Amino acid sequence: xxxxxxxxxxxxxxxxxxxxxxxxxxxxxxxxxxxxxxxxxxxxxxxxxxxxxxxxxxxxxxxxxxxxxxxxxxxxxxxxxxxxxxxxxxxxxxxxxxxxxxxxxxxxxxxxxxxxxxxxxxxxxxxxxxxxxxxxxxxxxxxxxxxxxxxxxxxxxxxxxxxxxxxxxxxxxxx
Length: 175
Known about the structure:
This protein is an alpha+beta fold.
């Protein structure tokens, strides 16, 4: 019992110090990229290949039918996207051929296992998780890493990428 209380206290302290409570997205002007390289492994005109497990440890991959892939690389953008999807029907993403990818690789494993994953499992829609810190840089656009990245696809080929930081722009881009 004493160990559990100490563990809970340590996790709460780490969450507080690591800023896990910060849910505010920094204002960011909407950006659209229609040509060129977005990140080391992501270029407009090339195919996207990505296979990851979700919060339930179920394997997912970007399919030919996928129209949009939403990437988040910060806690704040992740909370914003989850906030939106939590107000939609359970099949919202499936009907629109949307995949949601969250980078959790910078998160300490204890925090991921005992705080983040239990929270993520409350969401019924799949969230593909980047757990390997070597994968994230392939998809992360450093100049826009504080924004929500929406990759628009046509049969796996990247047609353009949009970066948004507020719920209205996000909703307009995915509906």
